[in-house]
Amino acid sequence: MANIKSAIKRNKQNEKKRVHNRVMRGAARTLVVKARTAIDKETPEEAKEATLKAITALDKAAEKGVIHKNNAARRKSRLMKRLAAQAKA
Q1: Do the beta carbons of residue 70 and residue 82 sit within 8 Å?
Q2: Count of CB atoms within 10 A of residue 44's CB?
Q3: How large is the average pLDDT for residues 61-65?
Q4: What is the C-alpha to C-alpha distance for residues 51 and 65, in angstroms, rounded to an integer?
Q5: Is residue 28 within 8 Å of 58, Cβ to Cβ?
Q6: What is residue 89's DSSP assignment?
Q7: Can you say how many angstroms the Cα of residue 80 is from the centroid of all Cα atoms in its chain?
Q8: SS3 of 4, please?
Q9: Which pLDDT tens digit goes with each residue over 2-33?
Q10: Is the pLDDT score of 37 beyond 90?
Q11: Is residue 51 predicted with pLDDT exceeding 80?
Q12: 47-73: average pLDDT
């Protein structure tokens, strides 16, 4: 445990950021899973809506630095590819 006042403060800040980042990352993951499920099962309109929500969450997480921008881009690309394949079928 830190004894220096600035180190104690830094630990508090890091913990606060860690929890916030975890919430954002978890929310993005949840929305991606919901989008995948919607693409596989739901109607095209519902699938598109779920995909757009997931993309928004990924963009926000990447903008805040919670996930890397290329990671967000890769996930968005995969979602859109799945959505397009469902639309063709």
Answers
A1: no
A2: 13
A3: 96
A4: 21
A5: yes
A6: -
A7: 15
A8: coil
A9: 899 999 999 999 999 999 999 999 999 999 99
A10: yes
A11: yes
A12: 96
Residue with tokens 């991606």: 32
Q: Which residue's entry shows tokens 């394949």?
A: 85
What would the two tokens of residue 30 be? 């949840």
Q: Coil, strand, or helix at residue 88?
A: helix
Asked if 45 and 83 touch (Cβ cutoff 8 Å), the reply is no
Amino acid at 35: A
Q: The tokens of 55 are what?
A: 């993309």
Measure the CA–CA gap between 57 and 27, rounded to whole angstroms.
7
42 and 14 in contact (C-beta within 8 Å)? no
Q: What pLDDT was estimated at residue 88? A: 86
Tokens of 52: 């757009």
Residue 85 has pLDDT above 80, yes or no: yes
Helices (H), the chain: 5-41, 44-64, 69-88
